[in-house]
Amino acid sequence: MAELDDRDLDFICAAAEATKTVSSCIAFCTLTPLWIWLTLYMVNQSSVSLSLEDFTIADVQTSNVSAPNQTFIYFKLHLENKKDVMSLDYGNLSLSFSYYRGSDDIVQLANYTIQKFHQGISKKTNQQTSVMLNPGISWREISKNATSVISRVDLAGVVRFSQLHYFKSKKRKIMAWAKVELDPVSGNRMSKKAVRLKHTIKHHPFIMYSSFFFFDHHRSVVHRQFEEFVFI
């Protein structure tokens, strides 16, 4: 067997280093999209925060005889994106307002739709407006002989998570809800602190399972390719 001279050894070492570099590039290019795809599908519930910064129900008196007195809900909904690497694309968010006339008797007050909007990375958004109550319902009637009034707010809609402006998750259903205790005299919320909405973002169980399987399978394939390149 012929002995290898220094030039042959240098060539073999250079080829081995080049092979390692190519293997690293292949592993990076293969695993990076998988990592982004996996993080988009495995978003944590704590990435979104919703709270009511303000909430009031009040009767509005008018001097116009042809226009009866009306009752409005004034609210300020605070939405926060706590992710420092992802932005959010909200679809239309449907808000439903109601109150408890009894322990098991919920009366619908009004509905409102927040139009779709984009929320940047680590950004905060406030949605505030007034909504007129359904006809035939007034704050005077709601608060009559009550020591406190328990109102309920429900939110339903969809949200998409976006990373690097190019990778987007599928639409996820988001649902949120909260009870707000109101002063029967002023109609303001009794708590001075913001009322946090409990929420859930639905995941598809098959997508979660297939994500783990797909990632683990490709990691094994890349690992074998890496070994073949290094030890060829």
From TrEMBL:
Keyword Thylakoid in record? no
Q: What is this protein called?
A: Late embryogenesis abundant protein LEA-2 subgroup domain-containing protein
Q: What is the lineage of its organism?
A: Eukaryota, Viridiplantae, Streptophyta, Embryophyta, Tracheophyta
The UniProt entry, under InterPro entries, shows: NDR1-like
> Which keywords describe this protein according to UniProt?
Membrane
Q: Does Membrane appear among the keywords?
A: yes
User: Which species does this protein come from?
Assistant: Daucus carota subsp. sativus
**GO annotations of cellular component type:** plasma membrane; plasmodesma
| Superkingdom of the organism of origin | Eukaryota
Tell me where it resides: Membrane
| Chief site of localization | membrane
Please provide the Gene Ontology terms (biological process) for this protein.
defense response to other organism
